[in-house]
Amino acid sequence: MKIERLLRSVLRAVSEKRAGKMRNLFKRCASLMVAAIIFVSSVLGVGAFGHTFGGGEALAAELDAATRTIKANEQGETVTLPVEDFLLGRKKFNVACATCHVAGITKTNPNVGLDTESLEGAFPARDNLAALVDYLHNPTTYDGLVEISELHPSTKSSDVYPKMRNLTEDDLEAISAHILVMPKIMGDKWGAGKTKSL
Ligand code: HEC
Known about the structure:
Layout: H1 2-44, E1 69-71, E2 78-80, H2 83-96, H3 98-101, H4 116-121, H5 129-137, H6 169-186
Antiparallel strand pairs: 1-2
Helix pairs in contact: 2-6, 5-6
This protein binds heme C (HEC).
């Protein structure tokens, strides 16, 4: 009996020691992981550490799920845009749209900007993903009465607007999503060229 008790306590001591070692090892791994994540995110400029570590992507900290959640269609369903799609949309927007729509304004028609208020007031309302993608296939005047694909870049008029040629349906969605996310990041500064008093 005595021997059994002795054996048991020795075993317990050994396993406790091992558990302690494992804990230490785990702690060391965890701090290494955190350091690695901080390093990678500061290099890529994504994630919550983008700001703190000055890694290129100044918007990263604002890109929480709520900011990336946008109206999907006129029924009011929502969709949460993956960060990669936001970055894709921004890139494509800058290439294909920013010459006329920098920071959400419309240079040649400041009253029809890409700000939420303008998009909501259009007919049909263009304040959701589906309606914006539709606009890029089938742009219309603000009142929805006249098709303007000869005057506005669209997939129909890629002969006149070659930048539209290589945009896939996914690109069009990402660009549209970008238009809907930006006012949530920039507030009133997105589309601020509009003459608000009109
Ligand atoms: C050559 C200049 C030009 C380019 C490039 C351009 N747009 Fe436009 N956009 C305009 C003009 C001008 C209007 C106003 C049209 C009107 O009179 O209704 C407009 C209107 C819009 C509207 C309607 C806004 C509202 O409040 O109803 C959307 C949406 C839009 N553009 C998206 C885009 C996107 C996305 C791209 C890039 C794929 C793009 N535009 C490229 C000039 C341009």
